[in-house]
């Protein structure tokens, strides 16, 4: 009996190991990149994504997802650095459907997009990396493009970047297969992959919470932040960007609309007032703003939804190939929006 149990365990583990690349995301080691000043996914590796999308991303130089060359030999064309979080990173779609690849495919003139977006980043990370890039002119960026999908990325308090390399995590990613790492994460964390799981079968009595639950506390203590407060926060961040970046800066506004809320499709942006404040602040600093909302809504009206699944719910996930194409089409407008001296032309909302 013990022998059968042992053989069954080995065969079951072998079956999971062989089939895991079809179903389990990969864990790629990170390295310190001196050009960007942050830890990035190891260049030359393949990054599998198996959640709300099914794709494999090639990691290029400087940790760029989906771009495998710096195009140093091709000195022609416009060179754009693309900044954002996981929405701009795009690991849930194949490389050919990422924003950079679609810009290269759709543009009649050479436009090189360098995808520097990383999941979890916000403007503190981007501004710090821009300052580091300016000291290491490995690429020669002509303009910086920021994908604005969520206001939280620009309304965070000004802070430093604590993104040092964690050697132990990189060592684990390098030594152990992905299915073992994923199994361990599922055991010790909850469904979000970050919250530590509490085991209810531990020895001793279980005491119920004496006060409100954690979620109840967060909901009751989380006061609604006014638009004026949020506007003040991104105003300070924009001023900081203006002081630290000499290259033109263009913002592509692509919020998570249209959205499906309570079974109804919502096409109106609930943050319109905040966007108007943001546009005026950008104009004051000489930054340009492109608005992708109408194109996103038009695609949804035509039955071509711009975003995928999240936790089984349709339409609330990351941008899919359609959403990335719409964003890429916004980037195609940038050469015409730059003045001869390289600065953005005065913003005209009629052009959006």
From TrEMBL:
Compositional bias annotation for Polar residues: 214-226
Residue spans with biased composition (Low complexity)? 202-213
Which SUPFAM superfamilies did the record assign? Answer: SGNH hydrolase
Can you name one GO molecular function term for this protein? hydrolase activity, acting on ester bonds
Query: Which InterPro entries does the UniProt record give?
Result: SGNH_hydro_sf
Q: Where is this region: Disordered?
A: 194-226
What is the protein name stated in its UniProt record? Uncharacterized protein
Q: Which organism is it from?
A: Stieleria neptunia
